[in-house]
Amino acid sequence: MSLSGKTAVITGSTSGIGLGIARALAGAGADVVLNSFTDGDDDHALAQEIAAECNVTARYIQADMSKGDECRALIERAGRCDILVNNAGIQHVAPVDEFPVGKWDAIIAINLSSAFHTTAAALPLMRKAGWGRIINIASAHGLRASPFKSAYVAAKHGVLGLTKTVGLETAKEPVTVNAICPGYVHTPLVDAQIPDTMKQYGMGRDEVIEKVILERQPSKEFVTVDELGGLALFLCSDAAAQMTASAISVDGGWTAM
Ligand code: NAD
């Protein structure tokens, strides 16, 4: 399939799942806009690397997804947005009565509210182009809860609510809105929560991976970023034109249990 002529904006795409999806879309010929909240040489170099590898235009635009005005400015600066991947996300692990208020606010802002702002800014551009795809990266935690992840679970359930609502609002248009619900993918986000999880469960690192993380996934394997990139490509294809307002699980069987 070719995405030549399309521009994809992927929020939070300097590592992990967002970067994997950016590479997959660029590999199919889409021009890509990478994003994060930092503004280092590495960020811009990453975009140049993808441009050279895939022979597409790739840009890095700094914008903090915890701030509504910066979310909207990202889309405005991109200038075109045929494919929007709302991927930026953070996590924090703590019991609800000890959950830092600042962490709660940041998780809701970055994981949920950013998708509201970018969607609102991108839809008029998609309507103008006569085609659009919105892909929200939710989580198995959008369908199931886990102890000590109140803000993340609440935000990801909210992402599914937003996906269904915007999918219905655009159902008669050539725009689709879907959510991907990955199980565990071994990215910096998962690595960062291991020390707190070790504390909460009183376990060592390997035990946390085996008995808390992979225990939930019947496949007993991490999902890979390439698998999620492949699904994003499918959602951009004509074969998925009638697929909207859906939540698609890629979780080794977790949420079927
Ligand atoms: P990651 O930490 O590797 O990547 C997160 C990206 O978001 C990074 O590029 C980071 O710089 C960026 N980011 C963080 N705060 C930001 C901000 N304020 N503004 C802009 N960008 C910001 O994490 P990941 O595991 O690749 O997660 C990506 C998405 O996938 C998240 O929404 C996460 O909730 C979701 N997810 C991850 C897993 C998993 O197991 N890794 C499972 C399900 C869902």
UniProtKB/TrEMBL annotation:
Q: Which InterPro entries match?
A: 3-OHbutyrate_DH, NAD(P)-bd_dom_sf, Sc_DH/Rdtase_CS, SDR, SDR_fam
One Gene Ontology molecular-function label = 3-hydroxybutyrate dehydrogenase activity
Source organism of this protein record:
Pontibaca methylaminivorans
The name of this protein is: 3-hydroxybutyrate dehydrogenase
Q: Please report which protein family the annotation says this sequence is part of.
A: Belongs to the short-chain dehydrogenases/reductases (SDR) family.
Spell out the Gene3D superfamilies in the cross-references: NAD(P)-binding Rossmann-like Domain
> What domain of life does the native source organism fall in?
Bacteria
State the Gene Ontology BP annotations.
monocarboxylic acid metabolic process
Which chain positions lie within coiled-coil regions? Answer: none
